[in-house]
Amino acid sequence: MSDYIFMLLLDVPQEIDDRFNTLYDTDHLPLMMQVPGIRLSSRYRLNWSDNPDMLRYLTLYDIDDPELPRGEDWKRQSGLGAWPTEMRDRVTARRNGVFRKLAGHRASEGSQKGEGWSEHLYFLQQGIPPALEERFNLLYDTDHIPLMLQAPGVNGCERFRLVWSGTGDVPDYLTLYDIDGPDLPRSPAWKAQTNKGRWPIEMRPNFTARRNGAYSRISQFTAP
After folding, report:
1. What is the C-alpha separation between 55 and 58, in angstroms, rounded?
2. Which one of 43, 55, 62, 77 has the minimum C-beta count within 10 Å?
3. What is the mean pLDDT of the chain?
4. Is 55 left (phi over 0), alpha (psi -120 to 50) or beta?
């Protein structure tokens, strides 16, 4: 897996969902996967979120270079096919950002991450005051995540920090949990683990932003 991902959240009117998904998978992504430096793209649909404004569609691009989405190859390919003329102007909301990987954690050796992203993801974005970032990262990796990996159905997680965003309104930290099913983060076992350790006392009251969602995979493409 790459050290960088380009995260793209989109929404469209529900009445064009079918056409949106067809064009994404048969027109747009096959063209985008021809950009040198894109290793993988994975598309997801939202199951639920605690945020009323959470966008329904998530695409994760594994990329070699954090500047790739601002490069000429990317711009050229994104302008090809039916997508830019038929769908781009019908997107009602968009958030994006390039993130750098900070850490990866697995629940056990038997849950080693394969190629690509898992079928179900719990997506969590958080903002924290700059003065607390060092403590935030330390507690996340040494206190909170080891406890969360003890919840049944949690296979691992990857943590990222924002490098840049083309849209703004994107919190600095992103965590992607590999989970067995979309309802897991609402389970009593998950909730019990979230309230253990130093995290809920020291960090949770200091979040400046928090967005979450359980997403299930629609499709996945690898570089030719």
Report:
1. 8
2. 77
3. 94
4. beta
Nearest Cα neighbor of 178 from 155, 205, 152, 206 is 155
Could you report the per-residue pLDDT of 42-95, keeping only the tens digit for each?
999 999 999 999 999 999 999 999 999 999 999 999 999 999 999 999 999 999
Q: For position 187, what pLDDT does the model report? A: 96
Could you give the number of structural domains in the chain?
A: 1
> Beta strand 4-11 with 93-106: parallel, antiparallel or unpaired?
antiparallel
Instruction: Print the domain residue range for 189.
Output: 4-222
CB atoms under 10 Å from CB of 79, counted, come to: 12
CATH at residue 131: 3.30.70.100
Contacts of 82 (CB under 8 A, 6+ apart): 23, 27
Q: Is the pTM of this model over 0.85?
A: yes
